[in-house]
């Protein structure tokens, strides 16, 4: 092979390596960083300190504390009266808390365990839901947490016996990741 042809082949090979490297870098930069997102998700309920240019502080309200009479250890706490859920870590600290839209049929106060889960199904109200975490059954109505795919929350309708406790899609994903089969669920007043 003449020297000129060898130089051209070497130059083309080098150019191809550069192009592949650039494409790989772009793909890595646009891929979702699930570890960073998980860290962001776990800190969403943390209070934030907002300072203006003059240095004064406007603090956001602190997250609702874990109810004292909700047991010990890792658990999901669901307060019927507050319409709120806490994801509580093994040391008793709230990892996340959020409000929910309660179901038409409420579970009795007590301690339950996650009995089944579904990534996506149609709810008893006909709405497409995801991250379904079931834990109780009352009068043949299955009770569980879920998020509507369209982001809607149900209107209370006593004529329908539904057991879906609805949360936002972000909160539903967090609960799904936290509440594996057998996880304790404590229902309080």
TrEMBL record:
InterPro entries: LD_TPept_cat_dom (IPR005490). Residues 33-73, 149-168 are annotated as: Disordered. One of its GO terms (molecular function) is transferase activity. Residues 38-60, 152-168 have a biased composition (Basic and acidic residues). This is L,D-transpeptidase. It comes from Streptomyces inhibens.
């Amino acid at each position: 092979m003449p020297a000129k042809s060898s130089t051209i082949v070497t130059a083309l090979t080098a150019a191809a390596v550069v192009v592949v490297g650039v494409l790989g870098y772009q793909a890595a930069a646009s891929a979702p960083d699930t570890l960073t997102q998980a860290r962001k998700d776990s800190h969403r309920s943390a209070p934030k300190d907002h300072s203006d240019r003059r240095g004064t502080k406007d603090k956001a309200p602190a997250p609702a504390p874990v109810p004292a009479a909700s047991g010990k250890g890792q658990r999901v706490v669901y307060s019927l009266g507050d319409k709120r859920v806490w994801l509580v870590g093994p040391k008793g600290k709230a990892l996340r808390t959020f409000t929910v839209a309660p179901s038409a049929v409420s579970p009795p106060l007590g301690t339950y365990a996650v009995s089944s889960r579904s990534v996506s199904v149609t709810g008893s109200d006909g709405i497409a839901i995801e991250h379904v975490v079931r834990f109780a059954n009352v009068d043949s109505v299955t009770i569980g947490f879920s998020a509507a795919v369209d982001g809607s929350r149900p209107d209370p309708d006593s004529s329908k016996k539904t057991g879906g406790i609805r949360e936002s899609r972000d909160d539903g994903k967090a609960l799904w990741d936290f509440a594996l089969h057998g996880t304790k669920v404590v229902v309080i007043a």
